[in-house]
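Weekly sync, protein design subgroup
Attendees: M.S., D.O., the rotation student, P.L. (late)

Item 1: inverse folding check
M.S. brought a backbone from last month's batch and wanted to see whether the design step gives back something sensible before we order anything. D.O. pointed out we never logged the input encoding, so this time it goes straight into the notes. Structure tokens as presented (148 positions):
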């Protein structure tokens, strides 16, 4: 399927896994490549679960970068086929594309590997895409960028 455009803004990214609603969440403890990004229940404070999605460059069809809305220097990076959040220069953030699937979107890396959330609490991995619900996400638009 062709990539779908995503309106730049602040989003909550819902994982389609079995059990209570789960959101893509930055953890607090950094390891080798930054803080692991997992799926977790909704937190009362959104600082680890609201993400800015915006084009990596101001050109139509450019891939997107994703970073924490409340810590704008912390962007998503892919290392060892796992998802991390790290305060590295923007040029080092990974780039992503979105494709429509039944029930939501798939999020792909530059290597065309898909986000996969196996269960609540697990770090998000990047895998060869398959038609499985664990690779489907819903983007919940919260607000435009720079709007309180």
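Designed sequence read out in the meeting:
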């Amino acid at each position: 399927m062709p990539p779908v455009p995503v309106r730049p803004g602040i989003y909550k990214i819902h994982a389609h896994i079995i059990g209570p609603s789960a959101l893509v969440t930055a953890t607090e403890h950094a390891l080798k490549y930054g803080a692991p990004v997992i799926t977790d229940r909704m937190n009362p404070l959104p600082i680890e679960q609201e993400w800015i999605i915006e084009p990596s460059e101001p050109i139509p069809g450019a891939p997107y970068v994703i970073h924490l809305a409340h810590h704008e220097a912390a962007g998503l990076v892919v290392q060892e086929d796992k998802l991390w959040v790290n305060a590295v220069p923007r040029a080092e953030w990974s780039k992503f594309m979105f494709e429509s699937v039944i029930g939501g979107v798939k999020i792909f890396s530059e290597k065309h590997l898909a986000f996969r959330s196996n269960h609540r609490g697990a770090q998000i991995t990047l895998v060869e895409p398959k038609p499985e619900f664990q690779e489907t996400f819903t983007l919940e638009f919260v607000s435009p960028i720079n709007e309180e």
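Discussion: The mean pLDDT is 91. The CA atoms of residues 66 and 124 lie 14 Å apart.
Action: P.L. to compare against the previous round before Friday.
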